Amino acid sequence: MAVRPIRLFGDPVLRVPAVPVIDFDRSLRKLVKDLTDTMLEASGAGLAAPQLGVGLRVFTYDIDDELGHLINPVIVTRSDECQDGDEGCLSFPGLAYPTSRALSVVARGFNVYGDPVEIDGSDLMARCIQHETDHLDGVLFIDRLDAEQRKLAMKDIREAEWSGGPLVVKESPHPTYGTGR
Ligand SMILES: [Zn+2]
User: Fold this and answer.
1) Distance, CA 172 to ligand 1 centroid (Å)?
2) Residue 31 is part of which domain span?
3) pTM given for the model
C-alpha cells in the first residue's frame, strides 16, 4: 500500500494540464495503485494524478462501491440535463459547494493494460468523471461555481487551516517602538 500526500489548492501543479499516457507499463500500474490507495485512505470519490504531483492523464474513482480508473479520458457525450449538488475535492479539505454538472456523461479512455474502456455514468459517477477530467486540464471545481458561491469559497479557503490561514501583512523586522500594529 502506498498512500502519498495529496497536493492542496495553491500548489501550482494543480493548474498544469496533464499529458497523455503513452507507455502502459509497470510505472503506470504503480501510479494507478498509489492513486487508488490514497483515494481510499482519504475516503474520496475520485483522485486525479496531478493531485499526487504527477502530470499524467489518469484518474481513479470509487463510486457506489465500484472501484476503477480511466487513462487518457475523453468525455464524448454530456447530457443537456444538469444536476445540482454539493461537490468537494480532496485538494480542498472539508469544503463543498453546490456545483452544476451534466446529469450523465459517456467517457472513453483506456485501462491500465491499454485496452479501450467506455464508461456510461450518471449522477455521482457523471459528476466524478467531469470533476476528475477537469483536473487533467488544470481546471478545479471552484472554477465551475457561480459567482456568489465562488466568492464564498475563496473566503473559506483563505480561512481554512490547511491554506495557511488568512493573508497576514508581513511585519517589519525592525523595532517599531509601539507605533506598529
Ligand atoms: Zn478534485
Assistant:
1) 38
2) 12-163
3) 0.89
